[in-house]
Amino acid sequence: MRILALESSCDESAVAVYDDAAGLLAHELHSQVDLHRIYGGVVPELASRDHVRRLLPLVRAALATAKTTPGDIDGVAYTAGPGLIGALLTGAAFGRSLAYAWGVPAVAVHHLEGHLLAPLLEATPPPFPHLALLVSGGHTMLIDVEAPGSYAVIGETRDDAAGEAFDKSAKLLGLPYPGGPQLAKLAAGGRRDRFQFPRPMLGQGLEFSFSGLKTAVSLAVKERVGNGGLDDATRADIAAGVQEAIVETLVTKTLRAIEETGREALVVAGGVGANAVLRERLAAAAGRRGVRVFYPRIEFCTDNAAMIAVAGLARLKSGASETDAIRARATWALTDLAPLTQPG
User: In the beta sheet, which residues pair with residue 18?
Assistant: First the structure.
């Protein structure tokens, strides 16, 4: 079975061609970073308009790279939520229209399920069941994954996500968009122990909270600016302190979840999963407990269509398909998904 997949939930336009026998045949991506950088963040209307411009050329490029014609496609998968509703509707309308024109089934994919199944693209995929830490700009969740499609959320953020805390702290430090990677780069030259930022709820269960961290960073920056300026060394130290607070919180909660669930495999998914310090700490801490850690490769940590293809293929093979209606959801609970009987 060979499918075409589309991703347009936020500010990446992406297309992939995936085959259940040959694997990933093509993946194309256009990032809108340059478009949104001058605004310091994603502008939803601009994102939607750019998806309209980019998706068709990306489809043509992906089909050419995969040496695939529309007649070779057995289904179309597209991200239907959660995300920016205008951006989602653009991809959903295009994906559903392609499926209709080509006479193949279409399937609406949950963006977070794509992230959770992204490690299945790797040569050594994770076993089921396992624990997953899904950490990105919009989500911070601990999920007990019994099987593909069977997800129990056992912990999540009550306010800001970890990636949001990275990005907002970076903006306070005057770093360009997207801020998270820039903050991590700056933190590499800083002292992580100079600023002791809060770790809200660190000793409490599996829930997260990062809004207090953002407030503390704002106060620290304002204090330094008010006392004569924010020199480069101090900015680096603040960045290192922010990263330390976020990483320590994520690692502590994840280890607690491992103990509570007894899982012997851990999947780390989402954009923040590309953070080198988080990877190093989790690998060391989980390894001491005999737990194997699985990641998608760096390019598949952030939004991409390859992960949508994996999730979409699994859904199509289980018999799922959409009606002729075009549906997208800005909010969509992961636990609303129907279980799957087999991995993609």
Answer: 3, 24
